[in-house]
Structures are given as C-alpha cells and as structure tokens.
Q: What sequence folds into this?
C-alpha cells in the first residue's frame, strides 16, 4: 500500500521557538494532504487541508499564522508551529490520499509527530 | 455544525465475543464514511463505505452503511486481544475533508 512518512517522529522544544514537521508521500503523488491534531485519549481534529500549489484551507478556530502549512510539491507538505507554547504540545498527524479526479480515496496516515513544548 | 457520533465510547469484552460499534453522522455534502483502527500511533484504514446497504468484509471485520439512518456499524466477530484499539469513524465531505468521531475504545480481555 501507499506509504506516508513524517519527520521528526518526536520533538522537544523551548517555548517561543518554531518547529517544522514534514509529511511525505513516498510512493505516490498527493495533490491534497491533511493535517490533524490529536490530544491524549481524544479523536483526530482536522486542522487544515494542504493543497499543492495553493494556500491551505484552515478549519474554523485554527490560527493560520500560528500553524503555517506549505505544500511545496506533490509529495511534500510541511507544518510549521510558530512561536510554540506548551499548549501546542500534542500529537500531529498528516494524511494523504491516492484518489484522483477530485476523489480523495483511501487516506494513508503518517506515523505522527509528538511535539512537546517546554 | 457537522458532527460524527460514536457509541459506545468504551467497551470491554472477552476473547471470542462479537462486538458491534456504532457511528452516526450529521454532515453536509456527505461523500463517504470510513473506519479506522488506531493502536499506538497513527490510524490504519479498515473500510470506506459509499453505498447504502452493501456490506464490506475483511476477515472477522465487516461494516455497512445506512444512508437513510445516517449511520454505520462495524462488526468484529470472534474478537482477539489484538483487536484491542480505538476504532475511529470518519465522514468525508465533498471538498475533500473529514470529520472524525470521538472513537470507541475496545478492550478485549483474554
């Protein structure tokens, strides 16, 4: 099946710094990728839809200046948490689909990135 | 506001039991409903359902969608300890984004 990777898998940073998380589709091209946030014992919360070649679409309540998303190519999307604070500590997961023609198809998830802000 | 509800939120059974997990939704522009299994890290895909009344099956797992009732069930027969996980239901909306339910935490005891 299709593989999605994320890097880093775990990051610890100081408050006020910025952290970049990469999401790559390894063996397929993804015009659309999704970024989720998951708090302990809770479900996934969609943060934004990352579109290759255009601006990301953010869900209501998600600060676009705080969570910068760039979809640089058909295989790479990045999420940058700017000026991170302890409340940004969470598990961040990306996903990408193999569908074409507007169909998202089956979604493949990256392994996730555990962010801890001290 | 679009929402996906799952029940029960938590379930404890013994090996060999059969379980039924429920998912109901209220969303605009429904496209498909998906089931995922989440163990330690990222979810893994189980089923995608688009048509009402057609059962999808994979081993001991099966699922069906009822568009009239805006719901879906996931059945697991002859449960094993390896089935212990959180089962997530998600609804895909046209516009290519998803709404996830809260998940059902299933614990299968030996």
A:
């Amino acid at each position: 099946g299709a593989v999605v990777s994320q890097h880093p898998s775990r990051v610890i940073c100081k408050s006020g710094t910025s952290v970049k998380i990469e999401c790559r589709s390894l063996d397929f091209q993804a015009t659309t990728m999704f970024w989720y946030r998951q708090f302990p014992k809770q479900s996934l919360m969609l943060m934004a839809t990352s579109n290759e070649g255009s601006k990301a679409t953010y869900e209501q309540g998600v600060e676009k200046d705080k969570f910068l998303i760039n979809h640089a190519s058909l295989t790479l999307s990045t999420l940058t948490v700017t000026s991170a604070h302890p409340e940004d500590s969470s598990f961040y997961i990306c996903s990408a689909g193999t569908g074409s023609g507007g169909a998202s198809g089956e979604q493949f998830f990256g392994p996730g990135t555990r962010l801890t802000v001290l | 506001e679009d929402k996906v509800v799952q029940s029960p939120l938590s379930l404890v059974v013994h090996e060999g039991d059969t379980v039924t997990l429920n998912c109901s939704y209220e969303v605009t522009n429904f496209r498909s409903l998906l089931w995922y299994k989440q163990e330690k890290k990222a979810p893994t895909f189980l089923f995608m359902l688009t048509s009402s009344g057609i059962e999808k099956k994979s081993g001991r797992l099966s699922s069906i969608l009822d568009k009239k009732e805006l719901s879906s069930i996931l059945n697991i027969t002859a449960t094993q300890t390896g089935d212990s996980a959180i089962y997530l239901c998600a609804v895909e909306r046209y516009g290519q984004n998803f709404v996830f339910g809260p998940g059902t935490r299933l614990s299968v005891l030996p």
